[in-house]
UniProtKB/TrEMBL annotation:
Protein name, entry field: Phosphopentomutase
Recorded name of the encoding gene: deoB
Cellular compartment(s): Cytoplasm
CDD domains for this protein: PPM
Reactions that this protein is recorded to catalyse: 2-deoxy-alpha-D-ribose 1-phosphate = 2-deoxy-D-ribose 5-phosphate; alpha-D-ribose 1-phosphate = D-ribose 5-phosphate
């Protein structure tokens, strides 16, 4: 048994089209593959490659991250069975709670009655109200929002309702209260929304409006016992880093850290590495998604991955022999694909410990739930959803 398990989710870093991608109009999506093509192989992820990232795609190599002969860890990919392709779906499935029914989406905008209730509660006008890019919506409506003291409400192809407001006009705590109220309105059919997202921004005019790190996700509460809850009930410490606490509504989490950025998140990982505990530390690094994937910026996404890879080297050196590191993603967000939404892809799964004597393939996992099942198996916690790959790690 490993004393500590560290799980890191590289938000949006898919590894190629999922078998059911056609259902989502995502055929041909390939986040890592298209980043490699953008750089024409002139990029490097040596630590991820060392664990085995390139070996997952031996039949269709990622330019610049090709297979190597002797990886130091185990590698494979996982297929999502949940009905959606949002962060909530992906993380819940990882933790043993697949979402088998689709949540509400609003390609034609939100119902007038819903918007009116939010506006009345906030005593503020609402503008936008439909699908929009998060960066473009504040560019197009930010000045009006500042002038009118308004809320900008918008969505994407995912089951989310996002509320943007200028921090100097609508204080962050006020925005959070508005989002909490909106959360209370969309927990039952016909409107069941996965996440209400507060999107504060700053700036003086359209060309310099910028979203801040005060984003906060108000997620639908888990509809059943997740693996985090099971671990906690079994006496294991559970630490959430980044938006993990938001995604699981704090359930099953003993200690949480808010990330200002990917690098801030890695600071938290390294801080937790110095702690003496027995249990699971679960991290989400969201910049890949919010700063680069949705903006279709392969250059930025690739550079952010290289930054992460450099920090990964420090993490690998700090791991103890009885530590296990698991790295994966929650969905794709191909910066070389059409549109600006998440993409239905398979995701990588990598496993490494300094005590490993062998390496090899974990194959294609049938569900993200195999990730959480492995963590539960390690701590001898039963009632698993999915199939553990712990015995393959030698």
């Amino acid at each position: 048994m490993y004393k500590r398990v560290f799980g890191i989710v590289l938000d949006s870093i898919g590894i190629g089209t999922a078998p059911d991608a056609a259902k989502y109009d995502d055929e041909g999506a390939d986040t890592l593959g298209h980043i490699g093509e953008h750089f024409q192989g002139n990029w490097a992820l040596p630590n991820l490659q060392k664990i085995g990232l390139g070996n997952i795609r031996s039949d269709n190599p990622i330019l610049g991250v090709e297979p190597i002969d002797q990886p130091v860890g185990y590698y494979g990919k996982m297929t999502e069975i949940s009905a959606g392709k949002d962060s909530l779906d992906g993380h819940w499935e990882m933790m043993g709670l697949p979402m088998m029914h689709e949540l509400s989406t609003y390609p034609n905008g939100f119902p007038k009655a819903l918007i009116n209730k939010i506006s009345a509660f906030a005593s503020r006008p609402v503008i936008a109200k439909g699908p929009y890019s998060g960066t473009e919506v504040i560019k197009d409506y930010g000045e009006q929002a500042v002038k009118e003291g308004a809320l900008i409400i918008y969505t994407s192809a995912d089951p989310v309702l996002q509320i943007a407001a200028h921090e100097e006009v609508v204080p962050v705590e006020e925005l959070y209260k508005i989002c909490e109220y909106a959360r209370s309105l969309v927990n039952e059919a016909p409107d069941i929304i996965g996440r209400i997202i507060a999107r504060p921004f700053v700036g003086t005019q359209a060309d310099n409006f910028k979203r801040t790190a005060n984003r906060h996700d108000f997620a639908l509460a888990p509809t059943g016992a997740t693996d985090l809850v099971k671990l906690q009930a079994a006496g294991q410490k559970v630490i959430g880093i980044g938006k993990i606490n938001d995604i699981f509504s704090g359930q099953g989490i003993d200690e949480g850290y808010h990330n200002e950025s990917n690098m801030d998140g890695m600071d938290h990982v390294e801080h937790v590495l110095q702690q003496d505990f027995t249990g699971f530390a679960f991290t989400n690094l969201v910049d890949f998604d919010t700063l680069y994937g949705h903006r279709r910026d392969p250059e930025g996404m690739g550079k952010a991955l290289m930054d992460f890879d450099r920090r990964l080297g420090s993490v690998m050196k700090a791991l103890r022999p009885d530590d296990l590191l698991l790295i994966t993603a929650d969905h794709g967000n191909d910066p070389g694909f059409k549109g600006s939404d998440h993409t239905r892809e398979q995701v990588p799964v990598l496993a490494y410990s300094p005590s490993m004597q062998q390496h090899g393939s974990l194959g294609i996992r049938e569900s993200y739930s195999d990730f959480g099942a492995t963590v539960l198996d390690n701590f001898k916690v039963g009632n698993q959803v999915g199939t553990s790959f712990l015995t393959a790690l030698k």
